[in-house]
Design goal:
Distance between the termini: 10 Å
CATH superfamily of the largest domain: Enolpyruvate transferase domain
Helix content: 25-40%
Number of domains: 2
Radius of gyration: 21 Å
Number of strands: 23
Structural class: alpha+beta
Bound molecules: shikimate-3-phosphate
Largest sheet: 4 strands, mixed
CATH class of the largest domain: Alpha Beta
Length: about 450
């Protein structure tokens, strides 16, 4: 991907209707489960972003026929749990933590060896959180130093189910172990410290695989059942919608309708936090689509106030904090986030990179090990480095709606990992954004 820079002129508001691209977490899983199923899976609303395309290419490299994507439609010709073939080369997961961590579990149960690699960001992210419990199940995985990728996964190992309590609230770790559990003898049981996104559990059920929900935080699978191909309708991604929820909330005159957004209760923390801050967000026509709750979201400008963010909401909004910090910068008073140390190991260190960017725009932001305190005030124009983090790039773009001057954001190419077409959608809604591709 060529390097890109965003320049956003200050002011304006967001109006009209918008459907943001499909949910990233669900798109990854639809390809994975479709590939492991027996029969054909038809997917609509697939996110054609780089992260999900990395997952798609990995399964093609393992012999799965996949038609598309064609305007969000993908047809996966499943090969069954034991039908994958050894890829000829290492599988490159690019920037995508979800691809690498979920595939690590699935590949630990195969008969062949694989190598999982990724870009500079992904090969610096912690992988022991998956390799350690997988090793307890009997997997053999070699890592680079300090447990990081590339991961060399040896096939032909016999996996045995374990009872595992996750040390961090992570849907990626939970999903990794449930996927390994499909290949294990006996029962694999995972307990999470707090509820996290449950798309894997919903999708296992949607593909007809027996899953035991033993409590709201404990899930169990036994190996050697089957997945049956199905149809999947992927809603618009609430994480991509969050930039517009914040943008419309902070910009006077805004009135925006975001269509067909996934509002799964394990993902809707940003709506709850923005409402606590005083945002005006309405859920219209709430419905179920393919086993996932969906609604149209109407958001209008409203004055925001700083809040202390309740810690139980943190895992439910984990990807939305870059955008929420912009809301905090535009709110009256102080916003305090704690219990969010996970933000330090996302695509970038999102606490430090957001604090640096806010400081460059004249906002007082005090980073802490597990969160940040942001004092609302006037945002100036200026230059910000997104450090290659897609969500940070989009968050500072939205900030220009309330800035005193233009905001220039460097290193924005990775916006294509989760939100291809962001610049066009944001312009259509009213943001004065230009992209310069070097
Ligand atoms: C994801 C889980 C979250 C999230 C990521 C997608 C998933 O990561 O940040 O963008 O699809 O399971 P963690 O499980 O590391 O919190």
């Amino acid at each position: 991907m060529s390097p890109s820079t965003f320049t956003v002129d200050p002011g304006g508001c967001l109006r009209g209707r918008l459907r943001v691209p499909g949910d990233k977490s669900i798109s990854h899983r639809a390809i994975m489960f479709g590939a492991l199923a027996e029969g054909v899976t038809t997917i609509n609303g697939f996110l054609e972003g780089e992260d999900c395309l990395a997952t798609l290419r990995a399964f093609r490299a393992m012999g799965v026929r996949i038609d598309g994507p064609d305007r969000g439609r993908v047809v996966v010709h499943g090969v069954g749990l034991h039908g994958l073939r050894a890829p000829a080369e290492p599988l490159d997961m690019g920037n995508s933590g979800t691809s690498m961590r979920l595939l690590a579990g699935l590949l630990a149960g195969q008969a062949f060896d694989t190598v999982l690699t990724g870009d500079a960001s992904l090969t610096r992210r912690p992988m022991r959180r998956v390799t350690e419990p997988l090793a307890r199940m009997g997997a053999r995985i070699e890592t680079a130093e300090r447990g990081m990728a590339p991961l060399r996964i040896y096939g032909g190992q016999r996996l045995t189910g374990i009872d595992y309590t996750l040390p961090v609230a992570s849907a990626q770790v939970k999903s990794c172990l449930l996927l390994a559990g499909l290949y294990a003898d006996g029962v694999t049981r995972v307990t999470e410290p707090a509820p996290t996104r449950d798309h894997t559990e919903r999708m296992l059920e949607g593909f007809g695989y027996p899953l035991r929900r033993e409590s709201d935080r404990t899930f169990a699978v036994a190996g050697a059942s089957r997945l049956r191909g199905t149809q999947i309708d992927i809603p618009a991604d609430i994480s991509s919608s969050a930039f517009f929820l914040v943008g419309a909330s902070i910009a006077p005159g805004s009135d925006l309708l975001l269509e067909h957004v996934g509002v799964n209760p394990t993902r809707d923390g940003a709506i709850a936090i923005l409402r606590l801050m005083g945002a005006d967000i309405e859920l219209l026509d709430s419905r179920l689509a393919g086993g996932e709750p969906v609604a149209d979201l109407r958001v209008r400008h409203a004055p925001l106030r700083g809040v202390r963010i309740p810690e139980p909401l943190v895992p439910l909004a984990i990807d939305e904090f870059p955008a929420l910090f912009i809301a905090a910068a535009c709110a009256e008073g102080e916003t305090v986030l704690t219990g969010a140390e996970e933000l330090r190991v996302k695509e970038s260190d999102r606490i430090q990179v957001m604090a640096d960017g806010l400081a460059a725009l004249g906002v007082s932001a005090a980073p802490a090990a597990d969160g940040m305190t942001v004092r609302g005030g006037a945002l100036a124009g200026g230059a910000v480095d997104s450090r290659g983090d897609h969500r940070i790039a989009m968050s500072f773009a939205i900030a220009a709606l309330r800035a005193g001057g233009a905001i220039r954001i460097q290193d924005c190419a990775n916006v294509n990992t989760s939100f291809p077409g962001f610049v066009a959608s944001a312009r259509e809604a009213g943001l004065a954004i230009r992209e310069l591709i070097d």
